[in-house]
Amino acid sequence: MAKIVKNISGASKTWGGVTIANNAFYTCQNQEEANRFALDDNLIANLVADYAEVYSDSTKISGVSAAISFLLDSIRDTDGALLVRPRAFSNSDGFRFRGASFFGNIPANSTADIDFKLTADRFINGGRLIIDNLGSDDTMTFQVVDKDNVLGYGAGVVLDEFIKDYYIPDNATLEIKLDYPAKIVAGLYLRLKYTSTHASGCKIKCNLFLHWKAA
Question: What gap in Å lies between CA 82 and CA 85, rounded to an integer?
Fold first, then answer.
């Protein structure tokens, strides 16, 4: 049973470390290579956009989830049904961790914005803020902003505000982690609006709890 990937994007694509010409088929040489294809975010995005197809021998696998499951290491039950082994680092809902971070400097006794652009769709359920030179009354606000008018509501529109004017604990670390995630589409920005009350200003480091999920 061959595991085959076809590129129908209109241009050459590199997935799983292999470059495939437009309208060309590529047969995975072994299961390890098939796993690399299955875990490649770019291939998954192209499957969602109908720019790629997956085949079992000459039979096309319908549906993104079924195609990814087929590529992953799997076994079959006695009735021939596909049994997919759980993915490493994913939960039962199919979320996989894609943590990211950013940092910035805030001038003394002032408020400034630090923006982080999402280049792919992500789910967020929290983050961890670390501050060098914490002031006694420092606060932070956390927003989702459409700086580039991706959604058509106007450039710079604040779409959501997860946190508003939170005071930072004395240990200079603030962590919030929720049981449920919020989806943020590619092209939007996460904005940290920070007010520093320290006479020398401060440095902000932020770890984001981001996740990816197949369509």
Answer: 10
CA 70 to chain centre: 22
Cα distances (Å, whole numbers) of residue 175 to 115, 141, 167, 172: 18, 13, 12, 10
Going by pLDDT thresholds of 50, 70 and 90, the confidence category of residue 108 is very high
Q: What would the pLDDT profile of 156-189 be if each residue is shown by its tens digit?
A: 999 999 999 999 998 889 999 998 999 999 999 9
CATH of domain 96-212: 2.60.120.230
The domain ranges of the chain are 3-84, 96-212
Tokens representing 183?
């989806």
> Using CA atoms, how far apart are residues 161 and 35, in angstroms rounded to an integer?
38
What angle separates helix 64-71 from helix 41-48, to the nearest 10 degrees? 150
Helix axis angle for 31-38 and 64-71, nearest 10°, is 150
Rg (CA), the chain: 22
